[in-house]
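Journal club prep — side note

Before the paper discussion, L.F. wants everyone to see what a predicted structure for a comparable chain looks like in token form. Sequence:
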Amino acid sequence: MTNETLASIDELQRIPSPGPAPQALACDGSDIWVASAETHRLYGLRGNTGAVFEEAKAPGCPIGMVVTGDALRVVTSEHHDSRYIRRYIVGHGFKTDSLSCPDDAGSFLAYDGDNLFLSQRFNLRILQIDMWGEVQRTIAAPRQICGMVIVNACFFLMTTADRDEPDDYRLIRLDARKPEPQITELARVPFMARSLAWDGAKFWTSARTANEIVAFAAIGVTPN
């Protein structure tokens, strides 16, 4: 059910997606990486113009991704929806190595500069995983996660209560630095959103049915 007491996000910009059904999304400064759930292609875009500067075929359907230094980590759905985390080197393409997602479940990724986090939508949780894919920590989430990014040590989550409730998307901040996570609902999102990214000044998400990438104003971001 839609929370009418929450204000909607403040949209700043929309860029047409280079592929239909944009799904996975990540930012590397002003550059944007987006992947299509239909073409299974990964695209690098200039955020100020939307111009494509790199393109590659993914080994499956790209679900979520994050920038980790000079590489991307991408969750892919392969072989009857088995979930893997694959490595994409900018300018060189996908590598053959991969990690199996714990319990064969995973959607979106976040990175805090040291640790990699994987969301499991229907298990309502975030997993901190090591370089071998072993779970180091489990963080409970209050709703299904449809996108995830870390900004100033807090998780920002795109969420929904149920995939059959297309009008109930909300942006949530989850601060897991204490034993009991602190959860704050920040804004309503008036479309079916997938993924969440941060370019240093504003958020980005994918509007799948509109085939667009949407930037919206920072909300709930506090200094470290």
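L.F.'s comment for the group: Residues 30 and 168 are 29 Å apart (CA to CA). Keep this in mind when we get to the figures.
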